[in-house]
Amino acid sequence: MKLKTILLASILALNLSAITIGKTPKNVSISDDNGGLVKDGAEWNSSTLKNKVYVMFYVDPDVKDLNEDFSAALKEKKYDRNNYGSLAIINLAATWKPNFVIEGILKSKQEEFPDTIYVKDKNSVLVHEWELEDDNSDIIIFSKSGKVLFYKYGKMETSDIEKALKIIEENL
After folding, report:
1. pTM score of the predicted model
2. Which site among 59, 72, 100, 131 is 20 to 30 Å from 152 CA-CA?
């Protein structure tokens, strides 16, 4: 009986950090040696994912185009930026490419898309803290209260894209 209790407690503790639909993930910040905002190097904190419906792309640079269809669908929608936000966190630890090359690309992306928040994750912080898929493309949609509404890793199929867009529109 004691072993079952310890095992159950361990499983529950492990799941506290995992992304779960309907739950707010634990608060995480990325700063200093771990990375930060592309625009000015400041700390990024997940507590800022509130007051808008946010779509977060957590991406290995080696698969940056994997969900280009979803990204294009979002651009086409032209959601009101007062109610909608986008976030791209780049998992720099997941690639063989030198950080300085990717950081240069990210700076130009930030200039091209100033409404999107770009974040460098140099040490796979969200892989460890939120148990996101490493070496992949993760898509998470957050409600205005910061709860997870949608999570998909890997290539989004047409049905995933339709579902994600519907969730966004229902929560704007």
Report:
1. 0.88
2. 100
